[in-house]
Amino acid sequence: MTLEQQIINLIGLATRARKIVTGEELVVREVRRQQAKLVILANDASANTAKKVTDKCASFNVDLGVFGNRYDLGHATGKEARVVLAIMDYGFAKKLASLINEYNRG
């Protein structure tokens, strides 16, 4: 199984466990409340969205990973296109962060 497929499967598992929040405003709210453990941003996010999410994550010290495009993230969550996801569970966040870092290095 490829690294990309592992990431998509793990996002799907987290979605079924109801440990994911999607949508820019909801993700930013969870980052502000310091409930988000990891934020995943699509490669093709708009410049405004990318800046807003990146700045919020930096100021509230939340990990940020960049992976796939909006359709990859949407497919992984079983929904339409999604630009940004917040992982709410520490276990999922830790594993996804390591996989995304490895994916971006390779």
From TrEMBL:
Q: Give the Ribosomal protein eL8/eL30/eS12/Gadd45 domain ranges.
A: 8-96
Q: Which protein are we looking at?
A: Ribosomal protein eL8/eL30/eS12/Gadd45 domain-containing protein
Q: Which Gene3D superfamilies match?
A: 3.30.1330.30
Output the Gene Ontology cellular-component terms: ribonucleoprotein complex; ribosome
InterPro entries reported for this sequence: Ribosomal_eL30-like (IPR039109), Ribosomal_eL30-like_sf (IPR029064), Ribosomal_eL8/eL30/eS12/Gad45 (IPR004038)
Q: Which GO terms describe its molecular function?
A: RNA binding
Organism of origin is Tetzosporium hominis
The protein's matches in Pfam families, at most eight in alphabetical order, are given as: Ribosomal_L7Ae
